[in-house]
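Q: Hi! Curious about what Thioesterase domain-containing protein looks like structurally. Here's the sequence.
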Amino acid sequence: MDESAALRAFQDALRTQRPEFGQFFLARLLGLDISYPDGQCLIVFEPQDFLFNPQGSLHGGIIATVMDISMGHLLNHVQGAGLTLEMKTQYLKAVRQGTVYCRGEFLQRGRSVSFLKSTLTDAQGEPLAMATSTWKALSPARAPGVDAAAR
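A: Let's find out. The predicted structure is below.
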């Protein structure tokens, strides 16, 4: 493991993080590039070796985290903040190196409950992992950043 790269990533994340979507500490630590093309959330990142498990591949918890972020950020982008009610993740192939792409999209959008999916692929479009999830939209009064007095 490149310990100096891990330390730099941690320090950079601490220095640049802000309490908002796309800029929070974990997104900064993982080096996520987040955009919203075609009604989807696209996350592009290059896994660093300090995120790898002892078998030399990207840890499954990191994969699940990035997929959760892709779905949560899409929900927030389209209709506001929400909570993950449940999530199922399927790991198809080990991620060992190279840029990966995570695409979150709606399966069905509702006013209070929505169903989303996320697909993680390599640069050639080969599927590496898939996830589906159920999300509950937060009411505007419960969403982060809303003053309690305004409720």
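A: A fun detail: Residues 33-146 form a domain with the Thiol Ester Dehydrase; Chain A fold (CATH 3.10.129.10).
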